[in-house]
Description:
Elements: E1 5-12, E2 20-27, E3 33-34, E4 37-41, E5 65-67, E6 70-72, H1 76-89, E7 93-96, H2 123-130, E8 138-142, H3 152-155, H4 160-177, E9 183-190, H5 203-223, E10 228-234, H6 237-242, H7 244-247, E11 256-260, H8 267-270, E12 291-296, H9 315-333, E13 350-355, E14 396-399, E15 422-425, H10 427-439
Parallel strand pairs: 4-7, 4-13, 7-8, 8-9, 9-10, 10-11, 11-12, 12-13
Antiparallel strand pairs: 1-2, 2-3, 5-6, 14-15
Amino acid sequence: MSDTTVWSTSVNTSxxxxxxxxxxxxxxxxxxxxxxxxxxxxxxxxxxxxxxYGPNIGDWFWDSYSGTGYSITGWSAxxxxxxxxxxxxxxxxxxxxxxxxxxLNDDGTFxxxxxxxxxxxxxxxxxxxxxxxxxxxxxxxxxxxxxxxFWLSIYQTTPQSQIEFWKNVLQETVAQMxxxxxxxxxxxxxxxxxxxxxxxxxxxxxxFWWGQVEHMAKIAKTAAPNKxxxxxxxxxxxxxxxxxxxxxxxxxxxxxxxxxxxxxxFQSVFGPVPxxxxxxSGLTGAALKPVILTEYGIPATGHQNPNDASTIYxxxxxEGNTAxxxxxxxxxxxxAPPPSPQQPYPIGLSLGMYYFEFCDEWWNxxxxxxxxxxxxxxxxxGFPNKYWDQDGFGIYSxxxxxxxxxxxPIWGNNGPNMPIDTQTPRAAIVSSxxxxxxxxxxx
Length: 443
C-alpha cells in the first residue's frame, strides 16, 4: 500500500467563549483537507459470540492465515455484508473497539513471552475500507487496554507479565498500522474512568490514572506520529470540573473522546455545567483540545412497561421515536444550535461523532444486558420510548443466518459458521442519519 495519510487537529481560540476545532488530512503529501467525522461504531460480534471472548477480545478484523496442516478463515464475510451499507449511510469513518497484533491463549491466559503467539494483521479489512482512496472509510482503531493499566489498586496486584503484554502489544499494533492510509488514529482505552480514579480526593490514584493515560498515549503517538491518539471516557462533567490540571499534562493526546447518550442537548459535554464545571469548551491552556463523540446513541426499541416484555412497541413506532430524537441531536454535533427552548451552548470543539452502533448483535442475544431499565426505575422522558433497552441499539437489527438455529455456534470448520447473520435496516434511523450526514460540513 503506497498511499499515505497524515492527520492533524487544531483549536482556534479567536472567540474565547466558543473555541473552534479543526481536523485535516493530507493524502500522499497533498494539501490538507478539512474533514468532519461522520461515523458509526462497528463491533460486528456475531450472535452467540461475545466481544469479551478470549482470544480475540473483540477483534473481528484480522486477516485469514494458514500454516502446515491448517488454515484459519477470518471474518471478511462480515465486512462484505456491512461496508456497502456503511458507505450508503454517508459515513466516512468507523470506530472499531479492538485491533490487536497478539491475542490471548485459547483458555484466556496470557502468552509467555508476550509475542510467542500468532502475529495478527488487519490489512485486508483496512484495504477494503480504503478502497483505493475512492470514497474511503477511515478507521479509528481501538486498543482495549484494561482497567489494570490505569487503576493503581489493580495495577499493583497485576502480574508484571500481563502489564508488559499490554504495553508491548500497544506499541506493536500501532506501529503495524501506522502507515496504512485508512487509519485515522487510535483510542488507547474505553471507559476506564471513574469518580474515584479520574478525579476526586485520592490524589495518588488520580495522579497514577492520568500518568498512565499520558504514558500509554505517548507509546502510541511515538509509534504513529502522523495519526491521532485519544481515549474514550464517560460524559461525566466532573472530569472537566475537577481534573483540568491533570488534563493539561497529556500532550500526547490529540483529542478528548466522550461517550455520550444525551437526548436533549450536549451541554453536559461542552458546558458550562452549573455547579459542576466548565465542560470541554471551557477548558483552557493545554487542556483545551478538540472533542470527538466517540459514542452517541439511543435505544432504538422500547417497552411501554419495563416489567412486561409483551409490551414492545411496533418497529415503526420505535424507529420513528428514535429518529425524531436523532433529527434534533445529530445536527448539533455539526454546529446546529439546540432546539428551542434550550439555550445555545458552545459546540465548536466537536470534530464529529460515531453513532452507537451499526448493528446490535452483541445486545440482541441471551446473556447480554438486554434488561429493560437496568436501574429499576420509572419511565424517563428523555428516552424515545421512555425506557433504556440495551437490546435496541443499532441502525440494523440482527437475526441468525438462514438455516441456523438461534443457539448455533459462531465457529465451524476453522472459520465462521455460515451463513453470516442477516440484517434488517431500521429505515427511519437510516434516513435520519443519512440526512444529517449529508448536511454535515467541516468547520
